[in-house]
From TrEMBL, chain A:
Organism: Tulasnella calospora MUT 4182
Name assigned to this protein: General transcription and DNA repair factor IIH subunit TFB4
Record flagged with keyword Iron: no
Subunit annotation: Component of the 7-subunit TFIIH core complex composed of XPB/SSL2, XPD/RAD3, SSL1, TFB1, TFB2, TFB4 and TFB5, which is active in NER. The core complex associates with the 3-subunit CTD-kinase module TFIIK composed of CCL1, KIN28 and TFB3 to form the 10-subunit holoenzyme (holo-TFIIH) active in transcription.
Lineage: Eukaryota, Fungi, Dikarya, Basidiomycota, Agaricomycotina
Keyword terms of this UniProt record: DNA damage, DNA repair, Metal-binding, Nucleus, Transcription, Transcription regulation, Zinc, Zinc-finger
Keyword Transcription: yes
An annotated GO cellular component: transcription factor TFIIH core complex
GO MF, one annotated term: zinc ion binding
Main location: nucleus
Entry's Gene Ontology BP terms: nucleotide-excision repair; regulation of DNA-templated transcription
TrEMBL record, chain B:
Protein name: RNA polymerase II transcription factor B subunit 2
Organism (species): Tulasnella calospora MUT 4182
Domain Transcription factor Tfb2 C-terminal: 402-469
Task of the protein: Component of the general transcription and DNA repair factor IIH (TFIIH) core complex which is involved in general and transcription-coupled nucleotide excision repair (NER) of damaged DNA. Component of the general transcription and DNA repair factor IIH (TFIIH) core complex, which is involved in general and transcription-coupled nucleotide excision repair (NER) of damaged DNA and, when complexed to TFIIK, in RNA transcription by RNA polymerase II. In NER, TFIIH acts by opening DNA around the lesion to allow the excision of the damaged oligonucleotide and its replacement by a new DNA fragment. In transcription, TFIIH has an essential role in transcription initiation.
GO cellular component entries: transcription factor TFIIH core complex; transcription factor TFIIH holo complex
Alphabetical keyword list: DNA damage, DNA repair, Nucleus, Transcription, Transcription regulation
Gene3D superfamilies: 3.30.70.2610
An example Gene Ontology biological process: nucleotide-excision repair
GO molecular function list: ATPase activator activity; double-stranded DNA binding
Amino acid sequence: MDTSTTKAAREDPPAHLTLIVDLNPLQWELSSQASNDTPLSLSQFLAQLMIFINAHLAARDDNTLAVIGALPGYSVMLYSTDDSPPDDEAPARHQANSFQPFRMVDGRIASRIQEEMEKSTDLDGKTDRGLVGAITKALCHINRVNLLSVALTNNPESTSAMAPPSSQSPRMLILSISPDASTSYIPLMNSIFAAQKLKVKIDVCKIFGSDTVFLQQAAYLTGGSYLVLERRDALLQYLSMCFLPPASLRKVLATPSQDKVDFRAACFCHKKVVDIGCVCSVCLSIFCYPITRTSCSTCGTRFPLQTLKRLGYIRQPAAQANGRSKPNGTANGK
Amino acid sequence: MPAPAAEALPGQHILLSFLATQSQISLTRLYSKPSACLALFRLLNALERQIIMNYLWLEGPVSSNTMDVWVTRDGRAPYEAAMRTLASLQVLPSPKPGSNMLQLSPSFKKNFRLALTGGGDHMSFGVPCEKDLAGGVNVEMLDRYAANCWESILHFMVSSGTDGRASRPTKGILYLLDRSGLMAGQGAPKITSEGFQFLLTSPHAQLWTLLLQYLSITNERNIDMVEVIQFLFMLSTMQLGQEYSTEVFTNTYHSVLEDLIDYGLVYKRNPNRIYPTRLATTLTSGSSATTSSSAVSSQAQTGASLSGNSTVATAGGGFIILETNYRLYAYTENPLQIAIINLFVSLRGRFSNLVTGSITRESVRKALDNGITADQIISYLVTHAHPQMHKNNPLIPITVQDQIRLWEQEKNRVQIAEGYLWKEFTASTDYNLVLEHARSTSSVVWENEQARMFFVTPEGHASCRDFVNQRMREGGGFA
């Protein structure tokens, strides 16, 4: 029997979960329309999300949580475990029927979301989602949580040999509802690399809409799961089976993995998602079509006209060809 | 380890093995309170919790094959162990013969769902009272109170009532200590070897050991055990520093409450109102590591300043420095801690905040004679090591660790066995013949070819004597 898996099932470090909730009002409106097979409105979604959050907090009382909302044009921290708890105002008899930490967390998240949604009604013009901002905020927060726990247990093999090197095993779960925004390709890829370095798994649950290429890559590259909800009425079951187990448990209970990942990239010039494009051989920038410039817009390397001509990007032969820059190749995405 | 803990599977909470022996009816009644379901859920390990979550929101039974496909090949063994635990607790009963459909116990499912979603009218999480700021009751004060109560029990045990400073616990506690075999003797109880081992375990384990004893005597006292567990679980889901009303409590709760006040789990200032202490609220928050100590450290994390003299703080943080030359420095003035260290250290000097001594062969032998094992001594030293010690790798000097283990082996070197020594064989053939017979009955304890001697157990001796007599009668040439 493999001892590492037995150990994984026994030892049980506190888990940190960062939830990124896509709160794009337009998409939620589309999602709740009755013309869908299974309409899911924001309030129904939030009710199930709260139970998922409770389940995460129920597992251990030192499990931590951060919730970040991604709204059109900006992102905002909705809740973090290190917030000071607000006053509990529910009537006493009412309070006795629910676990106090659950009630406080849920109440706070619900009121913050309502606040933000009311604010964001006049932001129709902005199409850019705050998703990248939310991921970046999440990474910064996870980094801080990590540093804090390292400072607390400044010795790797602290009180017992069983203690894991890092007491936290941070994860991020993105509940996505909007389509890809190709403008955010570069910052998103940078966040993915940062997450890889921090050893943060990014899970993605696509609740509504078509596949998003970039989030698929985010899950694949960080070792998380990417899941498109097939039955939206079973959201809670999906959440608790696929996204509740911490990393150590995923060695015992499998979580869905992706059989095929769409590795397409967005070009740097027009932010179009491309299958085949041109790649600068010096800085690896991706362009869909280099006709507008004879040199790379990112690093300034001049492209050899011979190659551009051979690839059919330039029709008339240019008078003076410069041979200093390196030949330019085509590549299949990234 | 005291008796109940010995049955526990490695890594499993001792309460779970106790619950597994209970009848299905009692367990179903236990699960009728949402707070009990939540507290039980927290005592399970991560895999068992996840399995419950997988089944929780399913309405109908599911074929076990459906769930089995989620298990990885390496995870088969832990998964099956987890399923056995859940079946023994009647949370996820094993399927009836001939069927493989599984579902959570209806009562557990209903009430655990209620615990997660909130709502209903069960009032199992305690009815909070309005804040009473005038009383001067705060978290620090509750910690001090709980530590005082608990340490006075331990101090009484370690001093066996001979130390005048250790106040005598109430009759109920004395009876419990006697029943659990931690102390023995009427009138003037003496600590037993189990009691010494008990002292070196973590406060969380100590508390549960006593509470399990408490549960096992509920029948004699005509108290409903299920209600007692429900009450303990209810306390464990209450919030520290919040006052709760006792008006909705049942009679059982009220009678148990009086005992729990003695143990320091509950603080009562006003009639009909109680404060749970940290001992109570951390009852189900994880395994041994999560006790008052880690709770204090998490408080330090949030920046709350802690007074250095707080007994809980000293009990939690490490205070022992051990050098390679066997000298030990303990930064403490807590009489309980000094008494415990005194179990295996010969103390030399005492200063205002420091006790010095050294680990010697005699001091360790004394501890071993009391029934304490070398591993327990070492694990105590590890868990209470001063932060300065954490710079060392390994934490406890290897020389000292090895020497303590060697001293233990030294004690085990002499084995006592009752039996008979056979010697003075004149010929080696005779010796071999009889030895051969003794071996065939596998009763030889020791043998020496050169000296022609061997040692047999009493049963083997009779058989050998018969064998020799028979040979003699047959004229088999024994000298």
